[in-house]
Design goal:
There is one protein chain. With about 140 residues, the chain is of the alpha+beta class. The protein contains four helices and six strands; from the N terminus they run βααβββααββ. Strands 1, 2, 3, 4, 5 and 6 form a six-stranded antiparallel beta sheet that branches. Helix 2 packs antiparallel against helix 4. It is globular.
Length: about 140
């Protein structure tokens, strides 16, 4: 898959829906099963919502990494918010700094094959999450 990366704004409620549709189309385009499509879309939705609510908005980049016998879907979500003060706590189920259920970050990590978070107090957060599909 040699598709180019795409960047989507995550600044409004409508952008959250657009991001979900873009991720579903991307997952479908590389042949993910319906189960893997659902996993990736759910993770993207949680991460984009976090960037919107906690980070004041940001961007979602969809990329298509490859490795021998596999194509992937990589989501990079960036915001310019306050950062995550306690990253370990943020991965704990039930932990929330808002009105949610506290499943977002940890749940998204469980749905993806690779997951990394880069956060700086006062400097925003970047989450890079990848799901691989066999070719």
């Amino acid at each position: 898959m040699a598709a180019a990366s795409t960047i989507h704004a995550v600044r409004t409620e409508e952008d959250l829906l657009t991001a979900r549709h873009a991720v579903r189309a991307a997952a479908l385009s590389i042949g993910f099963s319906i189960i893997d499509q659902t996993r990736v879309v759910t993770a993207a939705s949680e991460l984009a919502r976090n960037a919107y609510i906690h980070g004041g908005g940001g961007t979602l980049t969809i990329a298509y990494p490859t490795r021998p016998r596999a194509t992937g879907l990589r989501l990079t979500i960036r915001d310019e918010g306050p950062g995550i003060a306690d990253l370990a706590a943020a991965f704990t189920d039930g932990f929330t700094t808002g009105a949610g259920l506290g499943q977002g970050l940890g749940g998204a990590r469980r749905l993806m094959d690779e997951f990394e978070v880069h956060t700086v107090a006062g400097g925003g957060t970047t989450v890079i999450a990848t799901r691989w599909a066999s070719r």
